[in-house]
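User: Hey, my collaborator sent me this sequence without any context and asked if I could get a structure. I don't really work with proteins. Can you help?
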Amino acid sequence: MEPFVFFTIAAMYIKMVTLAKLYQDKVCVNNLHYDVNFCKNFTPHNKEELEMKATVLADAQLYSMYQALISTLPNTIASFFVGNWIDNYDNSMKYALLITAIGGTFEALLLILNSLYFEWGPAIVLTSFIPTALSGSFVFVLMAAFSYVPKVTAPHLRPIRYAILELAFFFGAPTGQYIGGIIIRTTPIGTNSLRNYVGVFIFSLCCYSFCIIWVLVVFRDKETSEFLIDEDANESGESERRIANNQKWYMVPKNIFICENALNTIRTCNKQRPNKKKLQLWMFIMALYTIAIFVYGTGAILFPFTERVFDWDESKFSEVNSINSIIGNLIMITAVFTLAKKFKVKDLRLAVIGATAGLLQTIIRGSLLNEVAFYMSYYVGSLSSLSSIGMRSYISRLVPKDELGKIFSMIASLESTIELVSGIVLSALFRVTVLKGPGILFQILCIPLLYPLIAIIVVELYYEGYNEDNSTENDENKNIPIVSPSEGSTN
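Assistant: No problem. I've predicted the 3D structure and written it out in structure-token form, which is a compact way to encode the shape of the chain:
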């Protein structure tokens, strides 16, 4: 699973900064008709040019919001159906991953066309995201990946396995950004192009093509599910209610959009559970949603923020962000192995550390507008991903394994709206603050970031003791199939 996640994330992030520049350049040249040299260098030399730059940044950010509108609704609807489908059909994970990779391939091809024909307006670029909107985009990957881990990993190893999966996410992002920053400053392909957007999108296309090949050749969802069913049957005398894949290949994806799938997902997330587990579940679902909005939203506005505050170009930002993100991720994975494996720190304690780190990182970025503080914020926030690792691990202990697909489906359905919510809210705030107070945006973000920290502390202090009986049912002494990190990286 991890190779697919790594290359999918790399394919997404390699084009993130390039897309921002493509919107900016097309707005600057095609919409506002500013001088081409100014649009290419984008360095203001007087107050008038500073205002021109702020106008371009604000208008280009609107297209990111429109992109979110195109992507959000189809993904949100699809995610309600996919969770139950993944839980009940063999090979469903394989189809989910394959559909995502194919959609990404078509998106990359359309972006290449929009780059080759630079005279096309920025609104035409938005049509490139229709394939990923219809194919589930990254929502399918999220549900498949986070449902896959607890089904093949013992409870006491789940924080580590989730950390490895998160590592694929967080190494894929800076790797993609770094490569994109290198490619975009090479000789442009196509007439009238200010930068080499085409080269970046070709690399994204190659990543998605690799994902398609990997799913078809390497990934074996059916064998994994059969192994787990046999183990669970020996342990409890009851097999999981998965439907054997003796149907034709085209019948499994056909069963996605059945109303019962969506209803089962909603029922599972809202049914009454002992020891206030329903309350705990929803507290953490909303906490994960808050963190996801913060992570995606700040990732989208961080580049124009550094353009405004530090006058960085896309290459400088890609280099700084990718290198510091990789170093921060190494710190994170070292901390997870040390705290969870050696010192036996529980998942909720890891989550508290992560939520605190994310809050401190945001305070620094909003309050200290200098490059030294910005660099420091990467290392202060290097442990912030522990919050999602700890909460996902706790959720996997909170509910039975055969319900995890539906639970993570609900989480993914909410997270599919992140692009829309963060796009509208942060774009509006960015337009208001970009000229006179760019740091205010991060200071405002500190307020919602308090909720995950409070939710984790409340659950740990008041509710975790209720779950001891449930966790012992899945104790490591039982014969639960365990996949080691090295094995997991190849499946």
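In plain terms: The chain has a mean pLDDT of 79. You can pass these tokens on to your collaborator as they are.
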